[in-house]
Amino acid sequence: MTTPISLEAMAASVPDGALVALPPDNSLPSVALAKALVRRGARGLRLLGVPVAGFAADLLIGAGCVAEIETSAVSLGEAGFAPRFSAAVRAGTLVVRDCTCPAVHTMLQAAEKGVPFMPLRGLIGSDILAHRPDWKVSDNPYAAGGDPIVLLPALQPDVAIFHAVMADAEGNVWLGRRRECATIAHASKRALVTVERVVPGNFLEDERLAPGTINATYVTDIAIAERGAHPVALLDEYGFDAGYVADYARMAKTEAGFAAWLAREVFGQRAAAAE
Amino acid sequence: MSGIKPEERLAAALARLILAPDAPPARHIAVGAASPIPAAACWLLRKAGHPVRLSLLHRRSGNPFTEGTRELFDLTGQGRIDLFFLGGGQIDGQANLNLVGTGAWPGRDVRFPGSFGSAFMYAMAHRTILFREEHSPRVLVERVDNISAAGVNAPGVYRRGHAQALVTGKCVFRFHPDRARFSLLSRHPGETVESIRAATGFGFDIPDAVPETPDPTPAELALLRGPVCDEMLETYPEFCARVFGRSEARAPAAE
């Protein structure tokens, strides 16, 4: 039995400096929690884009919440390059650990299985590998000789953060086919999940809902945040708000424009909600 | 039939490369997010009756993957993706791709979004078609500043496939992994070998005869503007409006 906590309490439970895993814009990011982290003034976060990062990451970077990011890309999709991320790279104020998508999944899967590393094909010849001293190349022990392959260390995030459609009375979370969020939850020490709504019953007793469900075992806390993925699409619940993201991309091109956007869209919202 | 749009010509050129008789069969093709022209090429084959399986990664409704985005990479790792498309902020004469950025690592001059899955997909898909509309010395460089994904590997490194070709707004290059070099396969109307050479930062081989890239056939154009556009409206509304003039595409996007 899980009682939802408030969004602001959830944000307060993420310590400064935490390694925070986030899904990308096509897979259930909690933009609501990212905004709450900006409001709480989080500092020194280390973000992990699973496997890439989008709107929520750019927002956190611009607001000065992020010291490091490990990801395969940061992009606003159709709205173009992520402006605050690009500015931080240019300024040298952000440590960027470039990755490639399947490597992120593989490192999390190693953590999920509780093994120290997993191998992955490809990567050899890429400068990504050259800049990752923590990734090792070893000969395949099952080959007759040679066959170099990359070994990736298990990666256990401190906190997984994502947004799902609904939680049930038992604290199980339903996310449909977006199972990478299950991998993040399985691999992380804690999972903080915002949901559109909490419904009665138990998803695990429904054969059709159970395959798209994360067992409450993996879910630390739930907070209700209606339209919590906005401006990102949420499954078949609501679509992508292209106008909102285009407006952000335009304003966030400059530091001053980004500050004005934050005042209106992040800090303004709290004032409105408190009334 | 009204004037052929450059995008329509490119889609038809890609479709011909996909079916090239000397290439491995394309039974299962995966198409990434920012790829409306490759997606159009794949739909063109499907609508022309070729039994190809298409996995469109960013499709919101009916997305093919139920294990999240890692399923694409697991499929590719097993050799179950025959063809993938990649581009690059820079592409060099050995088919190395730079999606990270220019200047010092990790892109201190101009930072691009990042490498995505390229470092894996390029080596593990059975083949890759490189696609970049901008054909300029800034994009097609002698040597990329940073390698996101390598065009060829040293002997002894396991690799399933390579670039088959590079399609740009000016021409089609074929890639030869044995000698890590491109050759000119066809030039789009209005281009000459010299105009292509002037716009290309890397050296490439020029055969005795370089034909013009063929026009899409009337049947291909009819498919592109009709059933192909229908399939693409949800994922690529802007593209469908611009290329096919289907401005009603905006309605579902504004939900």
TrEMBL record, chain A:
Q: Which SMART domains match?
A: CoA_trans
Annotated protein name in UniProt: CoA synthetase
Gene3D superfamilies of this UniProt entry?
A: 3.30.30.40, Glutaconate Coenzyme A-transferase
Give one Pfam family, short name only. CoA_trans
Q: Which species does this protein come from?
A: Paracraurococcus ruber
Q: What is the lineage of its organism?
A: Bacteria, Pseudomonadati, Pseudomonadota, Alphaproteobacteria, Acetobacterales
From TrEMBL, chain B:
Pfam families per the UniProt record, alphabetical: CoA_trans
Q: Which domain of life is it from?
A: Bacteria
> Membrane-crossing residues?
none
Recorded hits in PANTHER family, A to Z, give: ACETATE COA-TRANSFERASE YDIF (PTHR43293), CHOLESTEROL RING-CLEAVING HYDROLASE IPDB SUBUNIT (PTHR43293:SF3)
Q: Identify this protein by name.
A: CoA synthetase
Q: What is the lineage of its organism?
A: Bacteria, Pseudomonadati, Pseudomonadota, Alphaproteobacteria, Acetobacterales
